[in-house]
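Sequence in, structure out.
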Amino acid sequence: METRDPASLPALTQDESIRYSRHLILPEVGPEGQRRLKAGRVLLVGAGGLGSPVAMYLAAAGVGTLGIVDFDVVDTTNLQRQVIHGTPDVGRPKLDSARDRIAGINPHVAVEGHPVRLTSANARQIVRGYDVVIDGTDNFPTRYLVNDACVLEGKPCVYGSILRWEGQASVFWGGRGPCYRCLFAEPPPPGEVPSCAEAGVLGVLPGIIGCVQALEAVKLLLGQGDSLIGRLLLFDALRLRFREMRLRRDPACPVCGDAPTIHELIDYERFCGYAPAEAVTENRMNDDVPEITPTELKERLDRGERLTIIDVREPFEWEIGNLEAHGARLIPLKQVPERMDEISPDEEIVLQCRSGARSAQALGFLRRHGYDRVLNLKGGILAWSDQVDPSIPKY
């Protein structure tokens, strides 16, 4: 991040001086620091759970330009934690909703929207135009992509991650400390780490971690304080405990090490073990996964065909809504290997989960063990609720 000459910093208007008066009397900020914030350009990758508090607090703090990368639309399930969006915004692009909320918080902040999927083809060009990048992503391919783009462009990446009741935060800055790859050289196998959609997340948690990210971004722009470079902050909300791990740069890191081998962005979906189609959406499976749609399944059940429906979700998900009325049985994904004797290979089996991702994993496992008559319910119970029985709650 370049240190700007104070003479080149934009002046504060009278309204801004009043708005930021509590900053101006802080010795670590003052008028010059506030002008640095006004000149600052921060890129938020994602306007979801983490991006919401980051965007709102950076806007309130007077960061002059916020770039937002997001191509998703607001869904009702987002509202429990993505507080930048409201009930009237359901169905709107998140970028539009976030832009309106930021304008309401601080009309002096410019929002640069990037309504695109961040890819290896556009990431460096987008990242290049900003001083600080905020990682608000929720999947491993994009997380590695953001990290590598920041290292190659020499930008600090303020990292955050949340799941269930736990969160993490750090600042990765290749050349000045470790990067994300120094901490996680290899991604976990697909499906090993559940998404928030599968495992859940406490609604307050992204507010806590997002505020830490916003704080780190402000400190970087001001050039004040001790940043989280070389430190990983761990937060346990259930026990209300913060812990810290020291991080070291890996000299063998392929992107920020002594002899880097990555000089351009790569195919991150394949690096993380995903087929390209899987990377687009968790609801889309590989072409070689035999599927049955909810309407097809309902028609076959109505004809009285003998089908064994196995629900591989967790017990608490089963309680939210299930297909027990159609003969479904619960065998959580992790229990499938030890309970195979409860699943007859002579029967035609339909595997089902929330959206189709976990059931596809169970299908692959059973096929490797000689089960040939196995189908995956396309779109899971969410699709069943949409296409067959809207009385089944969606979550």
